[in-house]
Amino acid sequence: xxQYINKIWPGGLITILSLFLxxxxxxxxxxxxxxxxxxxxxxxxxxxxxxxxxxxxxxxIYKGEGERxxxxxxxxxxxxxxxxxxxxxxxxxxxxxxxxxxxxxTTRQEDGITNNNVSLLGMPxxxxxxxxxxxxxxALIRDYLCFNLSRQIGEYASxxxxxxxxxxxxxxxxxxxxxxxxxxxxxxDVIKIDVYDNSFPDITGGYIxxxxxxxxxxxxxxxxxxxxxxxxDFIHEWPKPELVLPEQNTYIKNQFITLAESAGSGNTSAIxxxxxxxxxxxxxxxxxxxxxxxxxxxxxxxxxxxxxxxGKLRAGPVWDSDLTYDNDLYFWGFDxxxxxxxxxxxxxxxxxxxxxxxxxxxxxKCYMSRxxxxxxxxxxxxxxxxxxxxxxxxxxxxxxxxxxxxxRWDNVKDHAERIAVIKNYLEERIPWMTENLGDFSxxxxxxxxxxxxxxxxxxxxxxxxxxxxDDMEFMEIxxxxxxxxDLTGIYFMGTGLxxxxxxxxxxxxxxxxxxxxxxxxxxSIYGLMALGEFTRNLSNNSERLILADCFGNVIDDVTxxxxxxxxxxxxxxxxxxxxxxxxxxxxPENWVAALDNDLFVEDIKTSHNxxxxxxxxxxxxxxxxxxxxxxxxLFDLTGRIIIADEQVNAGNFRIxxxxxxxxxxxxxxxxxxxxxxxxVIKI
Length: 683
Prior knowledge:
Elements: H1 2-8, H2 16-25, E1 32-33, E2 37-42, E3 54-61, E4 69-70, E5 80-91, E6 102-108, E7 128-132, H3 142-152, E8 160-167, E9 170-179, E10 207-211, E11 222-225, E12 231-238, H4 246-265, H5 280-292, E13 303-307, E14 313-315, H6 353-360, H7 362-375, H8 384-409, H9 415-437, E15 451-457, E16 474-479, E17 485-486, E18 491-492, E19 506-507, E20 512-516, H10 519-526, E21 532-533, E22 542-548, E23 554-561, E24 575-578, E25 591-594, H11 601-607, E26 611-613, E27 620-636, E28 641-656, E29 663-671, E30 674-682
Helix pairs in contact: 4-6, 5-7, 8-9
């Protein structure tokens, strides 16, 4: 027993006296905490096995931020964040050697069988959860740090909450409650591919794949060579290995093979190169978080990827981040987390060759350097002061529990010293990465095309004609420039809405491009052809839409919302319409709620010979039409109204602009219930 524990714990020889003291500490008095308290009792007090999950009850005591929680509060319903059935098992690989176990559990309904999606400690509702024992991290902050930093830079990583755990009346110490990685709108946001999806386009996603050890019993799906002479093993996370179809395995495997081949050959084509296969910003963000901590497991083990239907392959989410920030399995002779090496080029767990090949590509490395420079600026998440502040806040949160943890497990020693190790490491790591990533001037000011998202139908009205209301969704993208735009490789970045323009498409100056939830439905309603169909649906509440080129350079970035001050286009037949493509589309006041017939602006202009001239104008602006003009409005680009719905009821109208300052103005002409907006230049 002594030899067993000595093998696991890094504190040197553990004597029989230590074992005795630890066994006594298991029954230490634990009555309250500033953290949530989780109380688990297995049915009949049964020991928890590796698998399968066994039945248990769980209570989570949490009164809210800043409040103290007491074990005795378990009998007060209003203090319980959860009170119900679970199934629980031991999880992990190397961590199973420790007496402080990690656990996976599923929240269940009262029958103890049916899964129950619930929100725990403010996290989105789900049923699969993890209690991370942080057994290899005596600072007890590394996973928490890495996951939170990943979310702060814009990528999903498991949400976390510190807690203290009682199991069958036995105090088990400080744990991290985490979301298990799985396909879910609030976790890894991809469609869950199923056994019927064996042809295009359904076979294209969604997948979750990992490079990892095979100790969990899941078979290797395929292998890719590494630069160390071995192989990186790839395993299906979703679909589950026992459910994946041969066609699905072939498809996703070929995505990785294409990535490896194009990265290896340095192919940066938006049509055939690695930018056409992968979401480059997600790969860069993954490498930055992995390398900031010098994660000894990254790339070879616990390295996740995901791909949505019709979407690009994305790296992440980050996982198993305990061997980071100058920490490793020292008691097994490992010492790999260094401040002056790249983990994808260290002669050990380097992962598949494509990681190093991407770094060696001048364009990719330039964008990686640019992103690193952005994130390390003052006030940004990876700036040294921001990191130290976040570490201090985390330590302050858990400092009380650290004392009990050390009494229970004798695994913390001098916690302040262990935190100092992390901070000292960062003082070396950040400048080393800055120097070795090098100059990014070649990609610092990339010119992007003037494409603007100008219409968004995100929540169509209910319909008796169309069974799926989401099929009526659409958006309009306007080429707001004077030159033709090549749309090849342009796509919507991130997760959620998926669309990538196919090769060879171009947009004429001023052209309006429509993308639809379902093209046939869009044509039947509006009589217009949509250029393409997007995958997934627009959120009925709020969503960020980022249009980018194949390297992730942002072309347009707008976040709409269904609440004030945004116009009301929420399930009432209206859609959002930008007043002018020259306006900032992230300002709610620059949008209006428009009706269906506003889509026919170009047809109306043509059929009624609607003319606004001269443009540019110095004195009088003339508006003429063969149809009756109902009213005219004039305002500047700040939204200031100069003429408000001037009644015309004639075929022509004249605006005196002689005394107006030079600049851009918008003229809105109402004709037969439709509104047409012109941009004019006053000189």
